[in-house]
User: Fold Ankyrin from Bimuria novae-zelandiae CBS 107.79.
Amino acid sequence: MDIARQNALYSEEEQWHDDFRAFTILHRLGLYVKATIEGHGDNLPYKKGRPYLDYACRSTCQNEFFPYQSSRGREPDIIEFLLEHGADPNEKFEGGSTWQKALSDIDIADVQCGPIYWAAFVKLLVQHGADLREPVTIMRYDSSGARYRRKIPFKGRASGAIRFLVTEADEPLTNEERTHILDLAREIEELKKLTSKVKTNWLAHLRSKEKRQWLKSKKEVHRRKFRKTKDLIGV
Assistant:
């Protein structure tokens, strides 16, 4: 490794604030990750710099020292575990959220996992609050071979994120794969509608409860005034 590359690596590590837990997440040591978090308060501790979830979501470990890692990719068990223990898919780092960065470097036609896996991966992040209002920037090549950036807006729709995976595939998908992925998109939309409905009903119930408490407090004020008046006039 040359000196310039070494300096860049050390600078990156300092900015990321890598620690041993990040190392174990990056190398998919799921049992160790779960044991250390469950044994210390059951909540994912805060980390400066690069979020723990980002290590799990993005395949950045392939290099000359750990070439085996490229064949392992992302493991949904670790991702789901981190999300359930407080990881935030919208946490910002280096100009974007973990959610945006994960989508930006997804290859739906990945030969190891397959497109159906990627759709399930997106569904998992959406279910745990990924912000669909955030556009995703992807790199593409024009006819001359030059690279350019393209922004994909989802406009708050989970199905848009899934359809992005279908339309941006580097290789053609089979009809069965397309159907399965779009079914997932519809499932997520229904989940989102249900969540919204539950939230609306809960807010209505809360307002109703607050109104009852307000009326009760007003009634109590009037009762106290009545008692005070009775005491003053000696009734």
Remarks:
- The longest strand covers residues 136-141.
- The chain has two domains: 1-75, 88-206.
- The chain has nine helices and four strands.
